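Lecture 7, part 2: worked example. A protein chain together with glycine.
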Amino acid sequence: MISVRVALATPYDVVVGAGAREALSSFVPAAAKRAAVVTQEAVPVDVDPGVEHRRFVIGPGESAKSLATVEQLCREFARWGLTRSDVVVGVGGGVVCDTAGFAAAVYHRGVPVIHVATTLLAQVDAAIGGKTGVNLPEGKNLVGAFWQPAAVLCDTDTLATLPGREYRSGLGELAKYHFLVDQTLDALDLEGRIARAVAIKAAVVAADERETAGLRATLNYGHTLAHALETAGRYDLRHGEAVAIGLVFAAELAAALGRIDDSRVAYHRSVVAGYDLPVALPNAAEDAELLALMARDKKAVDGLTFVLDGPSGVELVAGVDPAVAEATLARLRD
Ligand code: GLY
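Predicted complex, written out as structure tokens:
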């Protein structure tokens, strides 16, 4: 078992390893008399918070990440008598982390939350760092709050329960970490890679909790094109698959801008392909639509803005020439 500290003003631990969820009761705050366990029907993972607890089941898929679900949860918490000194425990993937975390952030103006992350994607990303929130019909994650968890348990035993594509989607987020600090992930086994990814994310979050210093935005490496592909929405891509294509695009774009050389692009392609993830754009993807969507990205404050690799590592780059971005899209076609 590996424990990684997220060194914020109120620090917390992320525990990674087989059976990590069994440590849950040791992280439940001493004052808590009750734990509201928020999960989904399809999550076949039981937890024991060591205090009186009740399951609150939210719906499947991204559509459950809504204000309606948060209202429902908060009303159920109130009817059960959950207090501010109790605890919410989210058991599941990104949808559960984001929704349970946001309900915990706003119920009674904030109750502690612990995430038991059961998907690879949640373990290396969504459960860590306190970004909580829900979608609106107008877009993803448009309402939310920073609400740091009291602890995160990444139980690698639960990964065996994942459907194949859900697991693959997590690999896309894991691939991203190969490029963020150095190439130390290459030599590690899966558990080591998860722990290293957690440590990289923990350090970034500790240095730039609210994404005000530009550093936390680097966690969105590969995500500008990924979000455009997901928003266009016709390509049957899971989030991590879209990120995988986005990573290759970001590398090709950085090379076109003279920021990295061909060997670094080849490294990106080999890492992504090594996870058996896609490296090419879906055939039906249209350049004009993708460029328009990328221009609307939340990071885009000064023209097309990307997180790009370069001589000083991965950083935010604004004002990218749309013609260069369009030519780069062409390089990602089969
Ligand atoms: N998923 C990106 C972040 O937590 O900042």
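The domain at 221-331 is CATH 1.20.1090.10 (Dehydroquinate synthase-like, alpha domain). The first helix runs from residue 24 to 27. Keep this in mind for problem set question 3.
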